[in-house]
UniProtKB/TrEMBL annotation:
The species this protein was found in: Pelagibacter ubique (strain HTCC1062)
One GO-annotated biological process of the protein: L-proline biosynthetic process
Protein name, as recorded: Delta 1-pyrroline-5-carboxylate reductase
Oxidoreductase as UniProt keyword: yes
Molecular function GO terms recorded: pyrroline-5-carboxylate reductase activity
Alphabetic keyword roster: NADP, Oxidoreductase
Similarity-based family: Belongs to the pyrroline-5-carboxylate reductase family.
Domain Pyrroline-5-carboxylate reductase dimerisation: residue ranges: 164-252
Amino acid sequence: MKLGFIGTGKITSAVITGICSSSISYNKIIISERNKSTSSILKKKFKKITVSKDNQEIINSCDWIFLSVTPAVGEKIIKNLKFRSNQTVISFISTITLAQLKKAIKVKAKIIRAIPLPPISLKKGPVPICPPNKKVKDFFNKIGTTVEIKNEKSSINFWSTSGMMAPFYELLRVMTDWLVKRGVKRNNAQKYITSLFLALSEDAVVNSKKDLKFLVKESQTPKGLNEQGVKELSRAGFYKSLEKTLNSIHRRLNK
Ligand SMILES: NC(=O)C1=CN([C@@H]2O[C@H](COP(=O)(O)OP(=O)(O)OC[C@H]3O[C@@H](n4cnc5c(N)ncnc54)[C@H](OP(=O)(O)O)[C@@H]3O)[C@@H](O)[C@H]2O)C=CC1
């Protein structure tokens, strides 16, 4: 199987890093030259990668095509590319819908939307795909955890929560800086905060059969520090504001 990537930016780089350290079997990966620096780094790093200047040439030579350009570029270029009906086209593009993709691609290829996130480079994290597709599901399960979504409207909900990655890192940054201001060495502060949140996330995954509210409750002792933390942040509107931001990202995606 030959895999082609139209657009070689941050997410292509993460997906290819995941693929190249996984058990996925493929003959070749062809990536577009743009971005020049990213494509040349990937080519140097992984043997089976070829770089092409011509998007159409990538499509002509590959079985699976990953669309990984920004929405504005996608709207401009996809309609001018010629696909084959026996191809699988997987779009990472955030705001181009399945109906719009079908119209631009014209032939009856299999068209799937997927939302890989940067930790896919570590073969970790969820990959929502819509509509469900067995082969695409098996593929992403080798570099993450595929979540099949039947209804495209519902996939927008997942897209909305993916807008919380940078806010999550910002949370870690604020706590780390807080420790640094109190005299803790930066590397110790960062190590403490990142390993604490890694452990908490792993614990939440292990306990994923339980409703998260039990973990919220279990991690508080009456009148303890965590009880104070949740109470004060709730009173300050921290969690309401999180919900409000999710709603506003959702509205933007739903336009
Ligand atoms: N980053 C993320 O976490 C995620 C991103 N996505 C989606 O994936 C898509 C790509 O995102 P991301 O990787 O972050 O964006 P980037 O801006 O990093 O990558 C886009 C790439 O497209 C290239 N490009 C521009 N024009 C063309 C063209 N005509 N032909 C081929 N390639 C071209 C750019 O090259 P150049 O630099 O030369 O302009 C760049 O390398 C977006 O639609 C985004 O919504 C989806 C899931 C997660």
